[in-house]
Give the backbone structure.
Amino acid sequence: MAGADTSQRILDIAERLVQTRGFNGFSYADIARSLRVTKASLHYHFPAKAGLGKRLIERYEQNFLNALAAIDRGGGGARSKLDAYVAIYTAVLRNDRMCLCGMLAAEFATLPKPMREEMRRFFDENDRWLTVTLEHGRTTGELEFSGPALQVARTLVGLLEGAMMIARSYGEVGRFQAVAERALADLAA
Amino acid sequence: MAGADTSQRILDIAERLVQTRGFNGFSYADIARSLRVTKASLHYHFPAKAGLGKRLIERYEQNFLNALAAIDRGGGGARSKLDAYVAIYTAVLRNDRMCLCGMLAAEFATLPKPMREEMRRFFDENDRWLTVTLEHGRTTGELEFSGPALQVARTLVGLLEGAMMIARSYGEVGRFQAVAERALADLAA
DNA sequence: GTCTATAGGTGGATAGAC
DNA sequence: GTCTATCCACCTATAGAC
């Protein structure tokens, strides 16, 4: 399956490009250079850029969900789960990247509709996992917060995405870590 | 001064385009169409797109600082100042726009250096004003939070920018308002 | 200050040989 | 599956007439 392998490598390179430069900030020529093939070859695997973009989000979301499932299997408490959740973001930022979907959220107005829908699914899944985790933590008394867990979840996602974006502009991962840790500390009972 | 007026109208249109589509998501042709002039005319006022971009940030930052000064002149307490600060963001989002600099933060890697520096200045000024406001509120006992005010300031900016970006992708201003109000409520003594 | 015309480059995408 | 060659639309930017 040399074909499937090439498709994966294309996705790997495109993913990095979107996370660093945005969907409108890279071209098939960039991927071709990096993979040492011609642009035409890329179109064999992904006829249109919109399709490549949709696949990118699907794969990113799947990997993200797998990471969340791994956290749940880890069996720690709510706080340690949230720490692990933040660690995913931190690892991305250390790699000089933005969250794929955070990046696409900025470019939302210019994206083809299938990409928009897929991107929102990513945020919906994040809200869902965080809501469950937060509510469980509140039930066990490990966490303390008022109001609906969904609102705390959205606050967390918004903060992580925004702080990540700004921290990257300064090249300072610590800037992100400081606010993320503070946000989690505020949830401790 | 029809010339200066034209320059301002160009900036107005370009500003809207950057806030909705991003700096890499619009072209001189878009401005020309909207202003009903030719692309060549635009280059008389702004020879290069990078220069136009830098001017955009400078003007946006100046308007923002003026708004902050107006809030300070209003003479309310720390909490009402923070409410007014959030209201600036809400107004932008109601207009289906992102914060200009939040948008540029996403595109950071593709921006010319002068735009990067100007953009960071915007965030620095926001940090500064919020830090002063937060510290004053803590002194008077109106606000309550632990740790350096600068960290709370950066948490707020990160949250507002991130939540704004995501809320815009859903076309739901209320999504932004809910998390913003919650964040401010957490600061009340 | 605004226009026409155009340069020189890059964008995504396709046809058809190998 | 990958290549060469090419298309056409669009990009930023400039020259020079009006």
